[in-house]
């Protein structure tokens, strides 16, 4: 709602925002009516201002008011309008904010309404105080509707010329921000604004006839709002704009789209589905190239089925590998620990024999036979501890595993990548960070209820400490 | 990503706990029984790791509790049956697709729009059967959400299981 009325935003009249605040629970048609209404009020407000100037200084103050920089900042919309009418040519150069196309569209739309008003106003000012009765008569019809102006008309003129400044000074800043945001979204916004303009124009014709009959109830409505709203209208403005934002994002109608509530809801639903589908596309491999919902659903079904089958297969495999069900609680962690211990032992060995380490570095493939043997020898106590911990593990398999890891140290990082999924460590890039991760890994696993093997723990910690010192 | 690994960790913890519970009553088990126990515990752990926030996890838990009194083979049969059903529907929908295509090529009476709608409907049905608790999803949006969640958790489950199987 907020952005469906860009001109509303950018002028940021309190009337408009009050109306907009009302509009949250209106239907689309009501909104359009409200907009028309607001535009008319704007028109009348302008009339009033011009009239005030007429009261003030006479006919030639129409130019003066628009050259006044403060007011020029406040009412860029009016400036644009006036520029469009070419009462003043060069005021547009004073505009503090660069106009963007969507705004221009909005103003051009406004032009259609305000043309007559300006012509009217200028004629009024030209005639100075003469037709003042007429003007007041015209205003009294809707004098209750614009809240800033209506209560002020009987008051002193100087205060009136001052008060809009005050109310819109904060609002002006806000509108500046909004305009910036609009510029960012311009590429998207232009098209939508186009369609909106079309709609507005379409409704303008029918709206013209409606305005007269709607005037009286709307006046009552705004009157009630006036009573409710306190003096700090700018605060309310910002609040109202914040509240209405999500309302707009979901419901947007392009050209030729229906705007009744059912089709809007349907569109929202479809958007949600397509959003989910996009996520699914990212998730399901090979789903990127498929267009069309049926094909994507096929792909998703196949993927889910394959995943389910994979679970079946893996559980079968686990069942086949493990003779007993309580296999993996201690066994798994023991193995992980063993691997870690081996790893750290290797590091310590490298520290002990700096010649080897210095020659090959850590990532060298070719580990000498004695190197692979020595950790194995050193590893024995740890293994004994593990086996003493009441675990029934095949020694042979361990030996196999050990040999494998030692003879091919490059395979170690992969096993660590595996372990990292238990302990939520991202795959490390450098060896040092990996070491630190291992350190924390060990502690994590130690925390996860393994009563055994305090000895390898301390040993490995020492080893890592050594590494850290290095 | 952090969330994903958290999920995996939680799943692992729960699974191991569940396996302990499953293994304690009977020491001797056949390979199929063991497999079923592993799978059931894994599914349950996955569902509990989701904390019952989604339809599918609730459906899994409900099914497990329903079947806990009955035989294990019953679960197996049911799942098999369901699988076959879904397969049949898939096949049938593909046949329909073919028939519709042929019809379309012969006579242009069948609107492509309605055909696409029917295809999507069939596949949605299949998906509903495939995702546990999919019958409770009334609209497509929630079904998509469930499917997303289910796929994510299945992937976590498979990752963890593969890790375990690879560690052996």
Automatic annotation (TrEMBL), chain A:
Q: From which residue to which does any coiled coil extend?
A: 26-53
Q: Where does it primarily localize? A: nucleus
Q: Biased composition, Low complexity: where in the chain?
A: 215-226
- Domain BHLH per the UniProt entry, residue ranges: 257-307
Q: Where is the composition biased (Polar residues)?
A: 137-147
Q: What's one Pfam family the UniProt record gives for this protein?
A: HLH
* Gene Ontology MF, one: DNA-binding transcription factor activity
**Compartments reported by the entry:** Nucleus
Which superkingdom heads the taxonomic lineage of this protein's source? Eukaryota
- Comp. bias (Basic and acidic residues): 182-211, 229-250
InterPro entries cross-referenced by the UniProt entry:
bHLH_dom (IPR011598), bHLH_ZIP_TF (IPR024097), HLH_DNA-bd_sf (IPR036638)
Q: Which PANTHER family match?
A: BHLH DOMAIN-CONTAINING PROTEIN (PTHR12565:SF456), STEROL REGULATORY ELEMENT-BINDING PROTEIN (PTHR12565)
Q: What is this protein called?
A: BHLH domain-containing protein
Q: Which organism is this protein's natural source? A: Morus notabilis
TrEMBL record, chain B:
For whether the record's keyword set contains Isomerase, the answer is no
Which GO terms of the molecular function aspect are on file? protein dimerization activity; transcription cis-regulatory region binding
One GO biological-process annotation of the entry reads: regulation of DNA-templated transcription
Domain IBH1-like N-terminal as annotated: residue spans: 6-67
List keywords of the entry alphabetically.
Answer: Nucleus, Transcription, Transcription regulation
The primary location reported for this protein is nucleus
Compartments in which it is found:
Nucleus
Whether tRNA processing counts among this entry's keywords is no
* Protein name as annotated: IBH1-like N-terminal domain-containing protein
One Pfam family, short name: IBH1_N
Q: Which GO terms describe its cellular component?
A: nucleus
């Amino acid at each position: 709602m907020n952005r469906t009325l860009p001109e509303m935003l950018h002028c940021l009249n309190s009337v408009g925002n009050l109306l907009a605040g009302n509009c949250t629970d209106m239907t689309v048609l009501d909104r359009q009516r409200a907009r028309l209404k607001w535009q008319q009020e704007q028109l009348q407000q302008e009339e009033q201002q011009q009239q005030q100037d007429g009261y003030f200084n006479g006919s030639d103050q129409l130019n003066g008011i628009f050259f006044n920089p403060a007011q020029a900042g406040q009412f860029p919309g009016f400036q644009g309008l006036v520029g469009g009418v070419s009462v003043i040519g060069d005021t547009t150069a004073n505009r503090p904010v660069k106009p963007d196309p969507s705004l221009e569209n909005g103003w051009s739309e406004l032009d259609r309404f305000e043309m007559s008003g300006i012509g009217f106003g200028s004629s009024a000012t030209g005639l100075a105080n003469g037709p003042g009765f007429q003007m007041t008569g015209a205003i009294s019809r809707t004098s209750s509707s614009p809240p800033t102006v209506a209560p002020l008309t009987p008051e002193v003129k100087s205060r009136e010329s001052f008060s809009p400044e005050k109310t819109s000074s904060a609002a002006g800043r806000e509108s500046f921000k909004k305009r910036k945001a609009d510029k960012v979204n311009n590429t998207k916004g232009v098209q939508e604004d186009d369609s909106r303009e079309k709609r507005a124009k379409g409704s303008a014709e029918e709206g013209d006839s409606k305005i007269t009959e709607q005037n009286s109830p709307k006046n009552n409505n705004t009157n009630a709002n006036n009573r409710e709203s306190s003096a700090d209208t700018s605060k309310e403005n910002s609040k109202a704009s914040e509240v209405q934002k999500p309302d707009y994002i979901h419901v947007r109608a392009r050209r030729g789209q229906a705007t009744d509530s059912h089709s809007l809801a349907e569109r929202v639903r479809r958007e949600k589905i397509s959003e989910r589908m996009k996520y699914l596309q990212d998730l399901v491999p090979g789903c990127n190239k498929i267009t069309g919902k049926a094909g994507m659903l096929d792909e998703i079904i196949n993927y889910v089925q394959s995943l389910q089958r994979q679970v079946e297969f893996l559980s079968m495999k686990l069942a086949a590998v493990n003779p007993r069900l309580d296999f993996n609680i201690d066994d798994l962690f023991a193995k992980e620990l063993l691997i870690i211990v081996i790893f750290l032992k290797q590091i310590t060995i490298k520290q002990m024999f700096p010649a080897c380490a210095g020659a090959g570095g850590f990532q060298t493939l070719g580990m000498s036979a004695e190197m692979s043997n020595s950790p194995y020898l050193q590893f024995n106590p740890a293994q004994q501890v593990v086996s003493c911990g009441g675990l029934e593990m095949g020694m042979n398999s361990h030996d196999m595993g050990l040999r494998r890891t030692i003879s091919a140290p490059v395979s170690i990082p992969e096993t660590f990548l595996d372990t990292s999924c238990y302990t939520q460590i991202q795959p490390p890039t450098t060896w040092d960070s990996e070491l630190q991760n291992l350190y924390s890994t060990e502690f994590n696993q130690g925390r996860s209820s393994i009563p055994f093997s305090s000895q390898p723990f301390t040993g490995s910690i020492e080893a890592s400490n050594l590494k850290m010192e290095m | 990503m952090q969330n994903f690994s958290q999920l995996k960790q939680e799943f692992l913890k729960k699974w191991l706990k569940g396996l302990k519970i499953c293994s304690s009553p009977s020491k001797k088990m056949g390979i199929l029984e063991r497999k079923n126990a592993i799978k059931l515990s894994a599914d349950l752990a996955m569902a509990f790791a989701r904390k019952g926030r989604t339809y599918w996890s609730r459906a899994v838990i409900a099914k497990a509790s329903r079947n806990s009194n009955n035989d294990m083979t019953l679960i197996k049969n049911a799942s098999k049956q369901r699988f076959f059903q879904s397969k049949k529907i898939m096949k049938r929908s593909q046949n329909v697709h073919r028939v519709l295509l042929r019809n379309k090529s012969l006579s242009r009476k069948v609107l492509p729009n309605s055909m696409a709608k029917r295809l999507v409907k069939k596949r949605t049905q299949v998906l509903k059967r495939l995702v546990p608790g999919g019958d409770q999803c009334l609209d497509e949006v929630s079904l998509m959400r469930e499917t997303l969640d289910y796929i994510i958790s299945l992937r976590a489950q498979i990752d963890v299981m593969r890790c375990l199987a690879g560690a052996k």
